[in-house]
């Protein structure tokens, strides 16, 4: 399968809900910023691609190590952070995406907090300023490329002391591009037992901040149960292992829980069987579950959204009608306000030929 083939599997409007900003930088931009900042990296883009990307099934640990190869170039640099947000919107527009929710940890893109493995030196860029810079870049990208982009702020499982600050930023910027809170990182860490994460999500519920959680990717179905029952997640990031708890799986199917599926990512990180015909997504599709198709970290996987659509078509027998349903489900499950959500659905219905085209 050609990961970088032309966009023709589903050449209609798409919605993407699970993609990490820091896993979607352009290699050429990283090299350009490194040159400006006097940071030494492999000389050519092709050489640097080998260092930063993965093409064979490996482990989540190896995957996470890739961030250390390039994050120090972008983190803490105001100009670079705004630029990567702007370029992200450009990339998604080229992929046919009309609405995207991009997620990131403000703390990991700042250089004023500890501990961050790739930090070169302590600086003055705060997580709050990171959010403002990303918001600016996304807004300018929206105007330039004609699509809509919103952001989700990530708590990190290994840093519960950051979580209350994350939810406060979600509240502060809820009318300025931020639509939800997320919890990412190593699922082996018992996030539910940690008061830092629990308090942040309790505050999210009280403040009507939308909630998603990475769960059931590398971790067991019990992490998904905790995400739903304790953290009150409205969507699940990945969630493949939910099928191993039939009671929970049936319950979430009935509740129309949305699962943010990333098939190519799940192969390369070792989260799922590398044989896509055995992927849990086949079960979700058969059971008419509510899910979307997403890239996760396209820089590290050297992929695009077309990669995941091709996988779904080639190995999981997705038809054009299946792709339409996936994107409509994504739009219905997105974290936009109801009025904007209806407008997004109308746009999809028009593009899919489901209603006559009208103007707003």
UniProtKB/TrEMBL annotation:
In the bilayer, the protein is annotated as: Peripheral membrane protein
Family annotation (Gene3D superfamilies): Metal-dependent hydrolases (3.20.20.140)
Entry's localization field: Cell junction; Cell membrane; Cytoplasmic vesicle lumen; Lysosome
- Example of a GO cellular component annotation carried by this entry: cytoplasmic vesicle lumen
Gene Ontology MF terms in the entry: adenosine deaminase activity; metal ion binding
Cofactor(s) in the UniProt record: Zn(2+)
Entry similarity comment: Belongs to the metallo-dependent hydrolases superfamily. Adenosine and AMP deaminases family.
Protein's name in the database: Adenosine deaminase
- Highest classification ranks of the organism: Eukaryota, Metazoa, Chordata, Craniata, Vertebrata
